[in-house]
Structures are given as C-alpha cells and as structure tokens.
Specification:
This protein is of the alpha+beta class. The protein has three helices and three strands, in the order βααββα.
C-alpha cells in the first residue's frame, strides 16, 4: 500500500502548518482520517486534510524569520 498524491500533499500541508504556527505536528497527524482508494485498493487518501491559513502573516515577517 502506498500514499496517494493527495495524501502526500496533505502531509506536506500538515508540516507547513506546524512550521508556520511553530507547533507540534503530532496532533495534526492524529486527527487525520485515512481511507483506502485507487486501483486495487492500494492507495491511502486523507479525507480531512489540514487547512493552512496565511491570515495575519505578512510576507516581510516571513522573510525576516528566514534570514535569522
């Protein structure tokens, strides 16, 4: 069994969310619901991918944090 492209994208969103919020990724991963899908039922998909919000984030703030 493999991760679908959708599941890989959802995991990357979880990583980005935890990095942006400077929070632990484990609770985000623990809330994910998985389903078997694809040809021969050989892929996992995530039915509730995380939502990443950039509300309140200023690009200059991001650039400053990357330079540090």
């Amino acid at each position: 069994m493999k991760l679908s492209s959708q599941a890989m994208g959802a995991l990357m969103l979880a990583l980005q969310k935890s990095l942006l919020e400077q929070s632990d990724i484990v609770p985000i991963l623990g809330q994910m619901d998985f389903e078997v899908s694809g040809p021969n039922q050989a892929e996992l998909i995530i039915t509730n991918p995380p939502v990443v919000s950039l509300e309140g984030i200023v690009l200059e703030d991001l650039a400053d944090s990357l330079e540090e």
